[in-house]
Amino acid sequence: MPELPEVHALAADLSSRLAGRAVERLDMTSFTALKTFDPPASAVGRSVIDVVVRHGKYLDFAMATPGGGQLHLVVHLARAGWVRWRRNAPERARPGKGPLAARLVLENGSGVDFTEAGTKKSLALWLVGDPMEISQVAGLGPDPLREDFTAEQLAGILQKAGRAQIKGVLRSQSTIAGIGNAYSDEVLHAAGLSPYQPAEKTDAVQLLDAIRSTLHGAIARSAGSAAADLKAEKKAGLRIHGRAGEECPVCATVIREVIFADRSTQYCPTCQTGGKVLADRALSRLLK
């Protein structure tokens, strides 16, 4: 799933390609992916893209309309979605069963494809006058990379979360925007914290330092990368997530894994849990 660093890089890459370009049309091939109906998809015609930015893990294509108004095409890539830049788009995207969900076509014939692999379709698009009209965007927690996101603010979040496991708190988009399953593992490893540690017992300064160093590091590695290269860069840059059975890059202990439902957690017993192994079940406690 694309998380804050990848969406940040996607926004930068797409903004450099699209800013100042006029839009011809928005083709929807998966009609369930478009979550709004007013304004219609046809409203983007003759709009000019001002910039592409992000809100947490949401991409926002901000456009100026011919009448002087604003439109925002907001996209959430979900778990298996992605963006593909096309120098020359085909005549028109047609509805079908393939991975293509939508195509934004520019007047010069180039464009952007929004695709989603697999059979579980969760990619979503909204066309609105203001991103805050979207409840999911309006409900996002603070961006952890904003300068005004302080250790004191994080401490308040942790205390409010009480005994909730810290990994779940990091992954909650209404609590902190942008961190998902992979980077929550990376942050907790950097902070030396168990994924099951109660939020209220977590040092906010220690955690904030780990959040910022992890996310800034990932963004720096992604800087200048085209959309097609970001997935591989993310996988190569992860130190702990997705590396069960390999050696921890800090202490050489074998990285362990906990699987629950459709998500996995990777951690280092030596760096994070005092040498103890976590039981592989929901609401697990440390094995004695």
TrEMBL record:
GO terms for biological process: base-excision repair. Coiled coil: none annotated. It comes from Garicola koreensis. Its cofactor is Zn(2+). Residues 239-273 form the FPG-type domain. Gene3D superfamilies: 1.10.8.50, MutM-like, N-terminal. Its EC number is 3.2.2.23, 4.2.99.18. The keyword Zinc applies. Keywords: DNA damage, DNA repair, DNA-binding, Glycosidase, Hydrolase, Lyase, Metal-binding, Multifunctional enzyme, Zinc, Zinc-finger. CDD domains: BaFpgNei_N_1. SMART domains: Fapy_DNA_glyco, H2TH. Belongs to the FPG family. One of its GO terms (molecular function) is zinc ion binding. Residues 2-121 form the Formamidopyrimidine-DNA glycosylase catalytic domain. The keyword Hydrolase applies. It catalyses: 2'-deoxyribonucleotide-(2'-deoxyribose 5'-phosphate)-2'-deoxyribonucleotide-DNA = a 3'-end 2'-deoxyribonucleotide-(2,3-dehydro-2,3-deoxyribose 5'-phosphate)-DNA + a 5'-end 5'-phospho-2'-deoxyribonucleoside-DNA + H(+); Hydrolysis of DNA containing ring-opened 7-methylguanine residues, releasing 2,6-diamino-4-hydroxy-5-(N-methyl)formamidopyrimidine. Transmembrane segments: none annotated. This is Formamidopyrimidine-DNA glycosylase. InterPro entries: DNA_glyclase_Znf_dom_DNA_BS, FPG_cat, FPG_N, H2TH_FPG, Ribosomal_uS13-like_H2TH, Znf_DNA_glyclase/AP_lyase, Znf_FPG/IleRS.
